[in-house]
Write a structure and sequence with these properties.
The protein has 117 residues and is mainly α. The chain folds into 2 domains: 56 residues, no CATH class; 42 residues, no CATH class. Helices cover 56% and strands 0% of the residues. It contains 5 helices and no strands. The termini are far apart. The model has no long low-confidence stretch (mean pLDDT 76).
Length: 117
């Protein structure tokens, strides 16, 4: 089922109906747990699922590799939490104080250059 969804042969909803899966999010959970999570199509079709067959035979990661992976996940979670907190602060400012806050598109510098002369 996971392979069919990842190949694009079925949508999550179609897989749910085809295989009689009751839970709304079960297919997504299985994709995260058992899938390759490479839906970009950057790998050749055959390579993607040859990797899946050998998945259990892969070398275990070293403790250092696992620590780095966990540190990266923690950093990402912290960044997402900061963004959620910032959004909450903006909502309070707008709702309770009536101040309209305009967000700059990402990638724009917040510093303005000033010319003295």
């Amino acid at each position: 089922m996971v392979e069919e969804v990842e190949k694009g042969e079925l949508t999550c909803k179609q897989a749910q109906h085809k295989y009689g899966i009751q839970g709304k999010f079960t297919v997504l959970v299985w994709l995260r747990k058992h899938g390759l999570q490479d839906w970009s199509g950057s790998l050749p079709q055959g390579a993607r699922y040859a990797t899946m067959e050998n998945r259990g035979k892969a070398k275990p990661r070293t403790p250092e590799q696992r620590i780095k992976e966990l540190e990266d996940q923690l950093r990402e979670a912290q960044e997402k939490e900061k963004a959620r907190l910032f959004e909450g602060v903006l909502d309070v400012i707008q709702k309770e104080h009536g101040v309209r806050v305009v967000k700059k598109p990402s990638g724009k510098s917040s510093r303005k250059s000033s010319s003295k002369g």
